[in-house]
Amino acid sequence: MENNFFMTEDMLWDYADDFLSAADKMKVDGYLQQHPEWRERLDVILAEKRAFTALSLETPDAGFADRVMTAWASEQAHGRATAPEKGQDRMIYLISAVFGLFICSALVFMVLQGIPARLPVEVPAVSLPEVNWGGIFGTPVLQYGLYFVLTLLALKVVEKYLHQRQMLDKLKMQ
Predict the structure, then answer these.
(1) Stretch 50-76: mean pLDDT, rounded?
(2) pTM to 2 decimals?
């Protein structure tokens, strides 16, 4: 018997259902011989299986499916009647749409200005004291990139707010 064999409840159920391979079955057999408490668990599982197979199967009476579907439909109607009205946060959705337009407009402006054509192919060697900071911060790539990042951050804040509202609405429903 290997020292690193670890018995689990799932393995015991698989053993009882005869789902284990021959090698695993031999390991479990050896483990069960050494550990009588696991053998008792297996006996309980086998007793449950015998009890389930001894149960008689009953067919549902006529109209059972109709009653279930009627109950389900009434639960759905009650849930829709008590659910908060959608569209309460129309202002938030409007703000999200405006931010989405900002993102699209930034991308359109970048394409229309031909920014990729203006980018240098080679990065010039510039020493730190000679850096033209105004030129760097004045580039359209940085301006629109910053615009784009700020818009994404604002959308993330709106998303977190809407998620919180959904969680609060679920808590109110309970």
Answers:
(1) 87
(2) 0.35
**Nearest to 106, CA basis, from 151, 63, 164:** 151
User: Does residue 7 contact residue 28 with C-beta atoms inside 8 Å?
Assistant: yes
Task: Look up tokens 């908060």; give the residue.
Answer: 84
CA distance 107 to 88: 31
Radius of gyration of the chain (CA): 34
The CA–CA distances, whole Å, from 173 to 78, 80, 93, 96, 108 equal 12, 11, 22, 26, 44
For the stretch 94-129, pLDDT in tens is 777 887 887 788 777 767 766 555 555 566 665 556
CA-angle at 129, arms to 123 and 133, nearest 5°: 65
Residue type, 79: G
What is the pLDDT confidence band of residue 37, given thresholds at 50, 70 and 90? very high
Helix H or strand E encompassing 72: helix 64-82
Q: How many CB atoms lie within 10 A of CB 28?
A: 20
Instruction: Name the burial class of residue 167, with classes exposed (0-12), middle (13-18) and buried (19+) by CB atoms within 10 angstroms of its CB.
Output: exposed
What pLDDT, in 10s, does the model give residues 38-49?
999 999 999 999
